[in-house]
Specification:
The chain has 466 residues and is an alpha/beta fold. It has 20 helices and 14 strands. 39% of the residues lie in helices and 13% in strands. The chain has a seven-stranded parallel sheet with strand order 3-4-2-5-6-1-7, sandwiched between helices. It has a seven-stranded parallel sheet with strand order 10-11-9-12-13-8-14, sandwiched between helices. Strand 10, helix 13 and strand 11 form a beta-alpha-beta unit. The C terminus is likely disordered. It binds one DNA strand of 7 nucleotides through helix 6. It comes from Sphingomonas pseudosanguinis. One of its GO terms (biological process) is response to temperature stimulus. This is DEAD-box ATP-dependent RNA helicase RhpA.
DNA sequence: AAAAAAT
């Protein structure tokens, strides 16, 4: 199967092949011909499956062959987040470079002036988040009566975010005679209902979840104590020893994102942050810094979990285990894209056990627990000794024979051993046999990890000691 | 529980 077999125009085909694409992804192969035949589509697919091109490409051909009437927009693409909308707009510009199609990106957080101007000039395609679109509509800046093509992207995310009433209202503003494409990773009942109401005789296309198919991502659970400074320490350790090129670090809270980024910067990492409390220009600027490699670590809330397509992300860290298992799938999907390999670490504190359980149920696979050298506390003057978690962990990990050594109070003077450890861990294996059974199984041998076939991260080849 | 989205 090649792009040439899908029925796209020669002109567009050239653009696609010039961009270096030869073989369509499964969803592109099955969606594009149907979209060109003007069918309604339900696409059950995650981001990272080539979904965007599966509607952008045929849309360009359809628009190129039709004629615009009175400069009214002829198609509308709805996205749940501003960044995703911006990304689809980029795609549209890339693939539509050889066509005289105009486009307006209608998202919040940026001034309305330019958007209104573009609308007045007349555009073929609207790419929008629901809030700004409704706003502009209510102000009388948009007429949707010429929109004969509608794309509802990431419908389940829209549902999560409470956008479904908005979507329904927007649907009623569009002409009844139209083509509607709905994409969603999952099909919960409200989305099914939405599809029944607004799509006509849709063709359902389903492609496998990346989580169950993307064997390019090596996944690990990192047991951690609940305290955030413990987690930060563990994170720094992994960032250093794992030769991280580019990483996205997900936190569950915006405050955690801010704190963590600040802390990473203080420790000399080139990091940035993105979350919904930032001004939109700032959000885009940080994303741009990351894409250009000026920073190589992006600390993010779930605003960045879905759909963002950034090339070459080698690592994803879940600094907090996500509350929703779906989010896990989306987060780790930021790495291992386009056939590249990636590593995903999920920090799991004792309280996160249930979340982890749900994640493993959803993906249907058990995630390897990573055994790591203990994080050794430096003496922190003025800080009260913590009472619970570290001690519990110590007790759980220590073999009876070690109890005396392990039970030493944290404030007892000991050599600082964490720093040198990262410098030259493999030359100085420490620890006796009693430690060996705590290594990750198979460390240093041919990996048996459910299909991981990428290069083995260096630290996994090393004998881990405590 | 949190985050996202119109201001």
């Amino acid at each position: 199967m090649s792009f040439a077999d899908l029925g796209l125009s020669d002109e567009l085909l050239k653009t696609v092949t010039d961009a270096g694409y030869t073989e369509p992804t499964p969803i592109q192969a099955s969606a594009i011909p149907s979209v060109l035949m003007m069918r309604d589509i339900i696409g059950i697919a995650q981001t990272g499956t080539g979904k965007t091109a599966s509607f952008v490409l045929p849309m360009i051909d359809i628009l190129a062959h039709g004629r615009s009437r009175a400069r009214m927009p002829r198609s509308l693409i709805l996205e749940p987040t501003r960044e995703l909308a911006a990304q689809v707009a980029e795609n549209f510009e890339k693939y539509g470079a050889n066509h005289k199609l105009s486009m307006a990106l209608l998202i919040g957080g940026v001034s309305m002036g330019d958007q209104v101007k573009a609308l007045e000039k007349g555009v073929d395609v609207l790419i929008a988040t629901p809030g700004r679109l409704m706003d502009l509509f209510q102000r009388g800046n948009i007429l949707l009566t010429g929109c004969s093509m509608l794309v509802i992207d990431e419908a389940d995310r829209m549902l999560d975010m409470g956008f479904i009433p908005d979507i329904e209202e927007i649907c009623t503003k569009l002409p009844k005679q139209r083509q509607t494409l709905l994409f969603s990773a999952t099909m919960p009942p409200p989305i099914k209902k939405l599809a029944d109401k607004f799509l006509e005789n849709p063709k359902t296309i389903e492609v496998a979840r990346p989580a169950s198919t993307n064997i390019n991502i090596a996944q690990f659970v990192v047991p951690v104590a609940a305290q955030s400074f413990e987690k930060r320490k563990r994170l720094r350790q992994l960032l250093k020893q794992d030769e991280v090129r580019t990483a996205i670090i997900f936190c569950n809270r915006k405050t955690t994102v801010r704190e963590l980024n600040k802390s990473l910067k203080q420790h000399g990492f080139r990091s940035g942050e993105i979350h919904g409390d930032m001004e939109q220009p700032q959000r885009l600027a940080e994303l741009d810094l990351f894409k250009r490699g000026e920073i190589n670590i992006l600390v993010a809330s779930d605003v960045a979990a879905r759909g963002l397509d950034i090339k070459g992300v080698s690592h994803v860290f879940n600094f907090d285990a996500p509350w929703h298992p779906d989010d896990y799938v989306h987060r780790i999907g930021r790495t291992g894209r386009g056939g590249a390999t990636g590593v995903a670490y999920t920090f799991v504190a004792p309280d996160d056990a249930e979340n982890l359980d749900n994640i493993e149920k959803l993906t249907g696979q058990k995630i390897d627990r990573l055994e790591l050298p203990a994080v050794v506390e430096e003496e922190r003057p003025g800080r009260r000794r913590r009472e619970r978690a570290p001690r519990e962990e110590t007790v759980e990990m220590a073999a009876p024979a070690d109890a005396e050594v392990e039970a030493q109070p944290a404030r007892a003077p000991r050599p600082r051993r964490d720093e040198p450890r990262f410098e030259a861990p493999r030359d100085e294996p420490r620890g006796g046999d009693r430690r060996r059974d705590r290594r990750r199984p198979n460390a240093g041998e041919a990996p048996d990890d459910g299909g991981w076939n990428g290069p083995i991260p260096d630290f996994l080849k090393v004998t881990l000691t405590v």
